[in-house]
Design goal:
Strand content: under 5%
Oligomer: single chain
Helix content: over 70%
Number of strands: 0
Structural class: mainly alpha
Number of domains: 1
Order of helices and strands: HHHHHHHHH
Shape: elongated
Number of helices: 9
């Protein structure tokens, strides 16, 4: 396989990472619930961090349900996707600082980090949905996060993630149709 074939294979077999996006809807739901409670902000933020740790297990379960190959060791682009995800871990150091310095803004910073980390997946999966989400999410998170409570931002993130998932599903449907046409030729 050549470069583009490997990239296309990664996007198709991984279904453009939709299982991770679906898992993030659940996580943003948990974050909304956490921030609707009367718990102290430090406790809410601790539970928020804990809820983000559910991403990989949830996405694995969802991948099984929607029939996505979770990992393909033969395709080097699968490893690139992992590296692009791990890149986000370095940015969590900023979130840890916010946890202490401006705890009421932690959810905003997490949303900005989450959105911004999507940009390279736009290239990897040849996805306009990822590129748009990577720009829209940080801007919306900044505006909403500066004006409203954290739970409002989390609810808006759920809405954005649902729209993002629908957009990815439509892209995947389009890719499947294109793939069938190419095989027919």
């Amino acid at each position: 396989m050549d470069f583009n074939d490997l990239r296309n294979n990664c996007a198709i077999e991984q279904k453009k990472g939709i299982h991770f996006i679906l898992a993030s809807i659940i996580i943003w739901g948990l974050i909304a619930i956490i921030h609707l409670t009367d718990l102290p902000i430090s406790t809410k933020n601790l539970y928020t961090f804990i809820s983000t740790s559910l991403l990989v297990p949830l996405s694995y379960v969802i991948s099984r349900v929607i029939n996505v190959r979770f990992s393909n060791k033969e395709n080097p682009f699968n490893n690139l996707g992992f590296v692009l995800t791990m890149n986000q871990m370095l940015y969590l150091l900023i979130a840890m600082w916010v946890y202490a310095a401006a705890p009421e803004k932690l959810v905003m910073v997490l949303a900005i980090i989450f959105g911004a980390h999507l940009l390279p997946f736009g290239w990897l999966y040849k996805s306009i949905s990822y590129r748009m989400a990577a720009v829209i999410i940080p801007i919306v998170a900044l505006i909403v996060g500066l004006i409203y409570e954290a739970y409002i931002l989390a609810i808006i993130m759920i809405f954005i993630e649902v729209l993002f998932s629908i957009s990815l599903a439509l892209e995947l449907k389009g890719n499947t149709a294109t793939e069938k046409e190419e095989k027919a030729i």
